[in-house]
Amino acid sequence: MNVLLDTCALIWLVNGDAALSHRATAAMQTAWFAYVSPVTAWEMGLKLAKGKLALNEPLETWFPRAKEQHNLEELPLDSEAAIRACGLPRLHADPADRLLIATAIQHGLTLLTPDPLIQQYPGLQTLW
Q1: What count of other Cβ atoms lies within 10 Å of the Cβ of residue 56?
Q2: Three-state DSSP class for residue 16
Q3: What is the distance between the alpha carbons of residues 78 and 80, in angstroms, rounded to a whole number?
Q4: Closest C-alpha among 75, 68, 71, 63 to residue 36
Q5: Rounded to whole angstroms, how far apart are CA atoms 76 and 89?
Q6: How many CB atoms are closer than 10 A to CB 79?
Q7: pTM above 0.85, yes or no
Q8: pLDDT tens per residue, range 11-33
Q9: What whole-number distance in Å separates Cα of residue 59 and Cα of residue 113?
Q10: Which CATH number does the domain housing residue 121 bear?
């Protein structure tokens, strides 16, 4: 199984937060590949700008360091995923989450997310 981390999963992983489930942690450790999306960097940047997120260093250094320290590959966003996100059922209005869902479906990845709305998408494998 290969996995894609939801934004909160990445933040909790880096912070060593107990909110990251044991199942998600185990999946990352046993996955052939664990991915993050540039959408996550964008979402984090938006949250930082709104004061809804605080980091101990600039996002420009935090994100690459997080990928390196946790052996995460960045999976590029492409037009196929962007178009797929537009056609998803309207269960979730968050554009970042919709892009992550579409990316996971497109690449056959298990999305590590605690979000119950995301977990309802047909054709999406999730784990938490």
Answers
A1: 7
A2: coil
A3: 5
A4: 75
A5: 23
A6: 7
A7: yes
A8: 999 999 999 999 999 999 999 99
A9: 21
A10: 3.40.50.1010
Residue found under tokens 């999306």? 37
Question: Looking at residue 56, what DSSP letter applies?
Answer: S
* Cα–Cα dist 18/70, whole Å: 16
d(CA 99, CA 121): 13
Q: How far apart are CA 121 and CA 12, in angstroms?
A: 23
Number of domain units in the chain? 1
CA distances from 52 to 28, 44, 64, 77 (A): 26, 9, 21, 24
Q: Using the structure block, give the residue that is written with the tokens 């450790």.
A: 29
pLDDT tens digits along 28-53? 999 999 999 999 999 999 999 999 99
Token pair in block for residue 11: 């933040």
Residue matched to tokens 């690459």 = 64
Instruction: Copy the structure tokens of residue 18.
Output: 């107990």
CA–CA distance, 41 with 107 (Å, rounded to integer): 19
Domain containing residue 27: 3-127
